[in-house]
Amino acid sequence: MRVEVLGPLRVVADGRTTDVGGPRLRALLARLALEAGHRVGHRTLADALWPEAEAAEGPENPVSALHSLVSRLRRALPEPGLLRSEPSGYRLDVPAEAVDALLFERLVLRGHDALRSGRHAAAAEHLSRALGLWRGDPLADVGPLPYAEAAVVRLREVRLGALEDRAEAGLALPGEAPRAAELERLAAAHPLRERLRTLLVTVLDAEGRRAEALAAYEAYRTRLAEELGSGPGPELRALHLRILREEPAPEPAPVPAPRGNLRAPLTTFVGREDERRLVGERLAEHRLVTLVGPGGVGKTRLASVAAADTAGRAWLVELGAVTEPDAVPHAVAGALGLRVSTLVEALSVTDTLLVLDCCEHVVDSAARLAEELLGRCPRLRVLATGREPLGVPGEALCPVSPLTPEAAEELFTDRARAVRPDFSPTGEVARICRRLDRLPLSIELAAARLRSMSLETLAGGLDRRFRILGGGSRTAPPRHRTLRGVVAWSWDLLTGTERDAAERLSVFASSLTVAAAEHVGVTAETLYSLVDKSLLETNGDRYRMLDTIREYGLERLASTDRLHGARAAHAACFLDLAERAEPHLRGPGQTEWLARLSADRDNLLAALGHAREAGDTGTAVRLGAALGMFWAVHGDHASAVVHLRPVLRASAPCPAHGSPDGPGHRGDAADADGSGGSRQDTNGSGAPGRAGAEEDSAASGGKDDLVREARLRAAAAYLLNATFAGELTDARAVVGPPPDASDPVGAFVAALLAMAEGRSADGTAALEPHLAHPDPWTRAMLWLARSFLDGTAGDTGFGPKDVEHAVAAFREAGERWGLSMLLMSLAYARAATGDTGEAVAMLEEAQTLTRELGTHHGQRVWLAMAHVDTGNSDGARARLEEVVAEAASIRQVALARVCLADLSRHDGDLAGAGRHLGLAREVVRDGEPPDRALYSAAAGYLAAATGDPEAAARHLGEAFALADAMPDMPMLAQVAVGVADLLLRRGEPERAARILGTAHALRGGPNPCNPDVARLTRDLRAHRAAYDRASRLTAGEALAAVRAERDGLTAR
């Protein structure tokens, strides 16, 4: 669809013309067309259509009237979908070339540039085409609106300049000199415009009409003197003097020599401003610069753009089609229109940039020629591109990386609109670009596929990327027409050893170290060679293969039946790492080894998944057991449950009665968390590898015993993480029957199974014999399990005492995760009893520990909220806003927003609270039960505050059900406070006071600094007796009371 405004406004689509009726509709379309492709704000449009002069007579609500007008305009257009709604505005979604006024200005600019560079024929062509777009007065039927009048003045001025440029170009072209009559008409219409007068005098003189030329000059000089008191400019005076002297016209200036052979780009250049600037800086400092990067990353386009930015001549030599190394000099000479024998002479005359593109397959020959030319041509610079450096002395490298996420999405959208003008990007675009490694060629091939498939189909088909990403540009080199061609070109340039190594490394799910590469049979030397050839990227001491290259390598492994063996070697590598790391995760070395495992998280999970798929139960169980503490310390409890559940279901349950040489022989019950796998001293100073593990296997009766022992530790890991994730409902089905509790690991598993099944007394009994275990970390975990059992039994008195025992043991072990978590729990208990001083001290220590564990640690949000119960809402808000600002974890940001919603509600900012919950909803809705409980409780409080008791009851009921299932006594107390708030708002203060008292009983104290509790306590002073009676209930009795209140809440 085209919009034409250089004359009466009309719309043209499919060869048919549509007239838009009504001056207001035409004015709206014209205003949007003048900024085609860009959003125009509601207010800007309203002001354009109803300016101040018409304000009194215009609509009462211009923006509302605008919306109605847009609806009418859409109905009038042949393609209504091109008038798009944007945030706070509208956009006419057509390219600038589809609006004659915008195309006119672009053509005039091109013509002017061509004229100034001496390309008169090109200038005449551009300018003639531009002037031919005019059909009459611009915006003639839009009406006398200020925006239109301003546009008309500008367009007329541009047209007049175009007429002058066209006349000047014609003077330099045989048979195309302008007619004197036309120039006389223009000069009469613009009598003070000197350039027109100069052209007129020149043409009259050229036609042999010397007297008329002199008369034209004299008339102009007289008018200037009379009206402006000035005289003609130097150029016109010099022309007048030459005519008086009857001197011949000067010969036209010679057309400058070609500045090179760079072609005008056919598509936009997206992103890479930093790289473009870097290449320019490198070229200013070095005479040889090489852009290196993987195939399809955009080296050629970047080189072309950078070359166009340079001041001297630039010549592009495409070496991709050169098949023989000896042909490289001939390819360079041919591109410059020279013979090889004259290259040095020609390149020595002036400043020249030679771009040698695609050097990787003829790298030796390209390097020799570059060195020879640079040595003999001091005014020459060379910009080369390839998968690897040329290796010439003085070479400066510019690595070319994939696009930034923003630039990748912009590129995809731009190329998609080229094939589907109605394309509107969605969140799938970001996912597609990420899957394609943000490689420009891959993105362009993918966008082109939108001609024949939907965005969703394209995204779903990327697992078969080599099959669907073909059919690129017919004019592109063959290697760039398909994604497979790009990668295969790089692969074929490798040696046999390099190809084998690249294929072995393709099983790594993320980056790797030199040690990991050597573990799967790739030497450090070969690894470095793959880096040089752009098959691997570096980041510090780690190496990464792009997903596109990795998928090609996996295809190659599968086609030669080597995939299973490569994955087995990969799994063995990361089992070794996990089993060496596990003991360190429960002592002073926790932070260092947590970071090491975090760097390889994707590889560890891939190794676990591949072991399961291959039926290697032993490796899967051992790896799951070794990762238990990693998941727990990371706060990634849901992930632990998801990955350990199938591992445990696929392996035989632990026997109910173990032999004396069974799991208990270690006396090392960090195994109680299910995370250990290698013997070492209890302080975690040793770090045995797989050899040590195999020795353990032999000592305990062989590999089967080792796997059975690991299965018990994996069960412990599952139960620990499932407890924190609130996912214990199917514990027996996953773990099997309770194991023998005669050793710490078995006791830990038996205790948590008992808790899951509501048999708290049995669980406590299983733990009792081991609570004085000599190893501090083992002792801490057992006391932690006992505190869980106390909570489910409703014994709030024993819970804090058990936590204190666990804190002391964790402190002795030097372990930060458990210590920080339980300090926070103790701080909550102290705050509940009003001991805020000690609570604050505990929170500060916990904060220090979590910072040492890393900024992504999941306890940060809960730690921040604990400050609320000490009366430090400002401190809580600062910590939560820090989490949001860092945006390191989507889940943590969502939880922080839920907590910020509570703080906003406390401040009376109910709208702000709603915004925070709205931003968190989608993430938390599919999260772990504790996350959903926190969200539902906050939503219930807010609904009650905004006067929606039904929604409040529903949300609080959901929160209670989730907290009751875990069970989570602090959350149950929080829900009880919310129920009390709702009852008070319903006008039932006596019952509200009673439920507030049950919250006191559930948490073991009044929690006087919490803003909600303090408000309700103040408002319910007259019902203190009901509160006091309920606060003296046992935790179990209080829980029953809240359950009963919850069941009847929605019925009232």
From TrEMBL:
Q: What is the designated name of this protein?
A: OmpR/PhoB-type domain-containing protein
Q: Which residues form a coiled coil?
A: none
NADP as a keyword of this entry, yes or no, is no
Region Disordered, annotated ranges: 653-702
GO biological processes: phosphorelay signal transduction system; regulation of DNA-templated transcription
- Output the SMART domains linked to this UniProt entry: BTAD, Trans_reg_C
Q: Which UniProt keywords apply?
A: DNA-binding
One Pfam family matching this protein: BTAD
Residue ranges of the annotated DNA-binding region, renumbered to this chain: 1-94
GO MF term (any one): DNA binding
Taxonomy of origin reads:
Bacteria, Bacillati, Actinomycetota, Actinomycetes, Streptosporangiales
